[in-house]
Design a protein that fits this description.
- By secondary structure, the chain is α/β, with parallel strands linked by helices.
- It has one domain (2-239): Vaccinia Virus protein VP39 (Rossmann fold).
- It has 9 helices and 9 strands.
- α1 crosses α9 (221-227) and α7 (157-167) packs across α8 (203-211).
- The longest helix has 15 residues, at 2-16.
- It is globular.
- The relative contact order is 0.14.
Length: 242
């Protein structure tokens, strides 16, 4: 098994240095975005709005970290909440998922609350950077280490940077702070014309700004190199300090 894993690490490193392969991945990503590719998948019946590659990456992280709490900003249809809850169900124990969204639409709330995995899910309606919401999250997170955080709500630079500042202290050493949709910085500026974010104003620019002054996290490039296709390049942040 050690030889198998070492060979995998070597091949992943080689893929990571293959610029032609990375360019092909970016071209593929741009092409499928016009077909709303990420909207086509469900997890246990709920739309998850993620690339399958990132779902696999999160599965590996969750299995390795075995968090007692997963916090996600941005709920949408609830597929990611159900996915995280199902992983914690497989792991066993009392692990919980906390989802935060500025608006939880009633039909989504009903479907999530009626799902078998809802027994591990709690939802908070409100802005993820609102002071009262943050207080509620910290109270919920008390005595629930290890903690994993995934940021997937408003994708503007200022919002994500504030989320990073507010929620990074909750992430425990060895766990991850995952920032989704950093890919926005690598795509043409006109790909999301109806959104307040774009090139120069997105989750990746927030990650870079955050890392200038925070030494608790490093970018786990091996995950990105392994996936090749991901919405979160430079977004898988591993916590290396208490």
């Amino acid at each position: 098994m050690d030889d198998f894993e070492e060979r995998n690490r070597r091949m992943i490193a080689r893929m990571g240095s293959d610029q032609t392969l990375h360019e092909l991945s970016r071209r593929w990503f741009k092409r499928v975005s016009s077909y709303e590719y990420s909207y086509h998948f469900t997890w246990l019946g709920r739309p998850i709005i993620q690339f399958p590659q990132d779902i696999i990456a999160m599965q590996e992280i969750i299995w390795r970290v075995k968090p007692n709490l997963i916090i996600e900003t941005g709920i949408a249809h609830g597929g990611s909440l159900v996915f995280y809850a199902s992983m914690l169900e497989l792991i066993g124990g009392d692990g919980q998922v906390l989802g935060i969204d500025i608006e939880i639409r009633e039909h989504n709330r009903v479907e999530i609350e009626n799902h078998p995995m809802f027994k591990r899910i709690t939802m908070i309606e409100g802005s993820s950077i609102d002071e009262e919401v943050v207080k509620e999250v910290y109270e919920f997170a008390r005595n629930k280490k290890p903690i994993l955080v995934a940021l997937d709500s408003n994708h503007t630079h200022s919002h994500v940077l504030r989320e990073l500042e507010l929620y990074s202290p909750l992430v425990t050493k060895g766990s991850y702070l995952v920032v989704f949709d950093t890919i926005i910085e690598d795509m043409p500026g006109d790909l999301w014309p109806d959104r307040p974010w774009g090139k120069g104003n997105n989750p990746k620019t927030a990650v870079y700004e955050f890392l200038k002054t925070n030494d608790r996290f490093i970018i786990d490039k091996e995950i990105e190199h392994k996936l090749l296709i991901t919405v979160a390049p430079d977004g898988y942040l591993k916590c290396i300090k208490d």
